[in-house]
Amino acid sequence: MIGERLCKALNDQIKNELESYYIYLSMAAYFHSIPLDGMAHWMRCQAHEEMIHAMKFFDHIIDRGGRVELQNLSQLKTTWSSPAEAFRDSYEHEKFISGKINDLTTIAREEKDYAAEPLLAWFADEQIEEEASTGKVADELEMVGGDKSGLLLLDRELAARAFPAGSPLDRTAYTAA
Ligand code: OFO
User: Fold this and answer.
1) Is the pLDDT of residue 55 over 60?
2) Terminal CA-to-CA distance of the chain, rounded, Å?
3) Is the Cβ–Cβ distance between 13 and 57 less than 8 Å?
4) Is residue 38 part of a domain?
5) For position 171, what pLDDT does the model report?
6) How far is the CA of 163 from the centre of ligand 1 (A)?
7) Residue 74 within any structural domain of the chain
8) Is-above-0.85 flag for pTM?
9) pLDDT per residue over 68-120, tens digit each?
10) Considering its fold, how many domains does the chain have in total?
11) Who contacts 43 (Cβ-Cβ below 8 Å, separation ≥6)?
12) Atom 4 of ligand 1 has which residue's CA nearest to it?
């Protein structure tokens, strides 16, 4: 059975992951509006991954006899001054999430909750990848600057990201039905 302190912290993390989902969906809407649909697609894929992250914590709590209590999400940003600013924000957000995963690991160790460690180790690995992928695109966008052909090339490249199977954020999943 999960202890009260870690259960509360994991509930807070569900909120963080759902906010991540919402932030990336908001960025997808921004990219569709400019319109850079490849970047919007990348953000939709990212949003879907965040929902999976939230559900990993959700199910961990359930499986260990804890109580999931969903929280209100914060008001979020809906527009950015440039694609570079949006990806720079996403990189900063991933660093914030990495800090939260570290805090959770500290709590689990203080509580001697060894059953949570494999899950938190998975997230620590995942955060290396998330910081690397968002940081790389942010750097590339800064290199491209105002060069429109460079921007379109990058947009095409990001359009190639694959959705997790059966994603409800993949337009083709429901338009084909
Ligand atoms: Fe972006 O990794 Fe979860 O939040």
Assistant:
1) yes
2) 42
3) yes
4) yes
5) 80
6) 16
7) no
8) yes
9) 999 999 989 999 999 999 999 999 999 999 999 999 999 999 999 999 999 99
10) 1
11) 24, 25, 27, 28, 31
12) 17
